Amino acid sequence: MAALTSLSLSAVTHCPERKKLTFSSTPFLATSSDFFGLRTHFSYHNVGVRASNSTSNMVVQCMSSVTDAPTVSETKLNFLKAYKRPIPSIYNTVLQELIVQQHLMRYKRSYRYDPVFALGFVTVYDKLMEGYASDEDRDAIFQAYIKALKENPQEYRIDARKLEEWARVQNPSSLLEFSSKEGEVEGILKEIAERAAGKGEFSYNRFFAVGLFRLLELANATEPTILDKLCAALNINKRSVDRDLDVYRNLLSKLVQAKELLKEYVDREKKKRDERTEPQKANEAITTCLGEQLPGL
Q1: CA distance 273 to 277
Q2: Is 11 helix (H, G, I), strand (E, B) or coil?
Q3: Is the Cβ–Cβ distance between 203 and 105 less than 8 Å?
Q4: What is the DSSP track for 47-70?
Q5: Distance between CA 228 and CA 216 in Å, rounded?
């Protein structure tokens, strides 16, 4: 069932009327909301807005069987406690939806951290936060997010970097030959293939699909058949990967459009403010000049 995604940028900066920029897109393949489990909606305010624990009207029921697993609300609250500064809602809305979905993945009985999953999440996060005002804040938000899920943000970054460095020196053929080679990353991929084949716990998720996509991208493996073969070698369902990658690509496209609209709006408002202040500055300069020449005035 296809869903129509609408992106909106609303602002309340220095103007008497509330202004809103909106546009609609064609439906995502599958649904764009499948990536988060929620309807994708972006808004921007001049002040960062923190989302409440009820990000949407949808009731999320978590049937996690993990002993003493925290609730979704507790995970979100941990994030808000760890990072107290306001986040512009064009970023915060998606972060809040992401953390709900990742919480549900994290506390499934079959969940097990692996570096490909970490690479996928890091890729999504870095793409989402491109253009964020402060690199320091962007890293602090990442730290708070992962710690809220009771995982190690350094491990995510280290493992993602390790896989990226490995993939950069591969080619399409060598990427598929991991099962016959020795090495740290090759060992990671072999272990994933074994678990996915039923010899251990493995829970496929959308971040894993993005991680595979990133490996192919860095190895310049552009032929569609390479993804087919890699999924087969890892014992991963190719149809699930295709579906999730289509959603991911469309999500990136919508984020780019939303940020471009936001930049255009901010630039336009800045130009208007500058135009309003120029006459005032000119009057002040004239007054100052007259005051210097005619001290008695």
Answers
A1: 6
A2: strand
A3: yes
A4: S-----S--SSPPP-----STTPP
A5: 11
Q: What is the pLDDT of residues 167-216, one digit of tens each?
A: 999 999 999 999 999 999 999 999 999 999 987 778 899 999 999 999 99
Please give the biggest Cα pair distance in the chain.
94
Contact 53, 35 (CB under 8 A): no
- Of 194, 236, 180, whose CA–CA distance to 211 is shortest? 236
- Checking 158-162 for CB contacts under 8 A at 24+ apart, the result is 159/115, 159/118, 159/119, 160/115, 160/118, 160/119, 160/122, 160/123, 162/115
Q: Cβ distance 163 to 116 under 8 Å?
A: yes
Residue 23 CA, chain-centre distance (Å), reads: 21
- Least confidently predicted of 37-46, 140-149, 183-192: 37-46
| Cα distance between residue 271 and residue 77, in whole Å | 39
- CB count within 10 Å of CB 294 equals 8
In contact, 78 and 120? CB cutoff 8 Å: no
Cα atoms in the Cβ-side hemisphere of radius 13 Å centred on 167: 21
The residues facing 6 across adjacent strands are 24
Gyration radius of the chain's alpha carbons: 24
Pairing of strands 6-11, 19-24: antiparallel
